[in-house]
Amino acid sequence: MKQQKNLFSHLTAIERTSLSFPAQYLLNQNLLQGKILDFGCGLGNDVKILREKGCDITGYDPYYFSQYPQGQFDTIICFYVLNVLFSEEQASVLMEVAHLLKPGGKAYYAVRRDIKKEGFREHYVHKKPTYQCIVKLPFHSIYLDDSREFYEYRHYNHQRNSSNNCLFCNPYTHLKLLTESATAYAIFDGYPLSKGHILVIPKRHASNYFDLPFKEQSACWFMVNKVQKMLKAEFNPDGFNVGININRVAGQNMMHASIHIIPRYKGDAVGAKSGMRNVIPKKISI
């Protein structure tokens, strides 16, 4: 069965002459602080009105305002975007928002709660197939009614996530988080082997990577792909080593699964066979 493509998600954007309900709510609660980004701003109505009210706000939308935002932001808003995207597209938005958010900053997601049937339907104006789905996020809910829910998001290392003493469940605040999704996060290694050394870490507390549900394993590797692009853009490495240590005998020190992404640079190793085979010295020449 051929999967239908989600080509017309942007057609759900509508013209308005007043602030959207979530924007007005956040404004009333004094939550729109500092440098603000409206991620998936649609036609830009909230951006225009909030600027008139004195907010320092930038709008980004891949269809209507396609210049990708530069730098990081104190506050990011993302209203009703996730409801019109497939699951991988949703994860990509979560990762991009996390990457664009300043350490200590906050992002706010608004999702619909009045969707009766998930899937494609013909748009009543444009007569094109538009997609709608129900979305629930593992973030702090700050507002809920029959029509919508608002979530507040902070970086994983800027909150207490577990009562255990695992440093991967409660990573240090001073470490720089690169990106995050609903089930995993990527953070710069505290003892890097090279410039840009990253750990992709599942949020579920599991020592052995193979004990993770397949869906969460897949989410980790989806993040690895995203992280690789981010590292190439920031550090321009010449190659990568990507690997997992499982159990003490294989060099695992933290008993919480993680994937190492280690950028490699010309001249940082001796010999041509200094890659993954180097982990067992007697086998280097094989």
UniProtKB/TrEMBL annotation:
GO molecular function, one term: catalytic activity
Alphabetized Pfam families for the sequence: HIT, Methyltransf_23
The HIT domain, residue ranges: 164-271
Coiled coil (residue ranges): none
Source domain of life: Bacteria
Name used for this protein in its record: HIT family protein
